[in-house]
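Weekly modeling sync, notes
Attendees: AB, CL, MP (scribe)

Item 1: holo prediction request
CL wants a bound-state model with oxa(dethia)-CoA before deciding which constructs to order. AB pointed out that an apo prediction alone won't tell us much about the pocket. Agreed to run with the ligand included and paste results into these notes for async review.

Input as submitted:
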Amino acid sequence: MKKRSVVCGISSFLPENTLTNFDLEKIVDTSDEWITTRTGIKTRHVVGDSQYVHDISVKSAQTTLERAQITPEMIDCVLVATTTSEKRCPSSAARVQDMIGAKNAFAFDIQAACSGFIYGLAIADSFIKSETCKNILLIGADTLTLFTDWTDRSTCILFGDGAGSCIVRAPTEGDDRGIVTTKLYSDGSKHDLITIENSEKNCFRGYMTMRGQAVFKCGIENMYQAMVDVLEQTNMTFDDIDWIVPHQANKRIFDSMHKIKGIPIEKVILTIDHHANTSSASIPLALDEAINSGKVRQGDTVMLTALGAGIVWSAAIVKL
Ligand code: UT7
């Protein structure tokens, strides 16, 4: 039986404030009808004043520790996948490590945009397999609404804030649950498709810009290819996958993938209607909700896939 890095304690946190499409109608020239039909989004959560990536990360992490039944001292690494830390430096991971009292852990952020959570799984898996770590706290958290140009209707309707987390831990004898495989990709020639510029003298935050249609096409092609690659790598087919939990960027990406590529749409878990695009948090947020609702169960095999700024993209198969 293969020894795999176990993924447990999946949790998430959403800030209390919400912003509906109807609220956005009052800010920019848009409509609930346009946003719903073009993206699938109805509402999103947004951070409050003085609420940053490390704050929402800690909320999610505390539930993860309870669910995984481990103490902060048992954690030997804290990874935060994020592009929207309060400060360029120090990392959000270092803040989280201190705030939860993980005094035996080293900590760093992963900057892989919307692919950050899967990049984090791959890094955690390597640390576990090399026996560098036993218990890794992995968090995906973003607050893109703090980097949103609220006068640009083509982007300001897309994003929400949130955090999701899990523990990646060393395998237990006789248990085949865990990370089956991961695959990471990058094509920096497409660096200008999604950007957050540094603003002048760093006095203000830069805003997100995106060439939506080009990213949409990459989303279909690259995420589909990544899923096919990890299936081939493991001699599996979509029949062996119970659920597909993708990065939640646009409902139509998966409708198109179903129509053009024939992916089993009934297995795709979508929470974009009430989460919007939460970048690196979107996969653990969707997973946590699906587990809490009883849809996804222990022992299920899930396929994860994501694509974001870089462009960087990825896929993973995890037996929960
Ligand atoms: O998380 C990283 C990965 N991100 C993604 O995967 C995002 C991928 N891209 C998308 O999801 C879509 O491209 C968007 C949702 C961003 C945009 O949808 P689209 O169907 O590609 O719209 P478009 O940019 O082609 O714009 C179509 C029309 C334009 O008007 P004209 O030029 O046809 O008159 C836009 O000005 O829709 C207009 N438009 C809007 N209208 C009402 C753009 N934004 C809005 C809006 N409300 N919010």
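Recorded for review: The longest strand covers residues 135-143.
Action items: CL to compare against the apo run; MP to circulate these notes.
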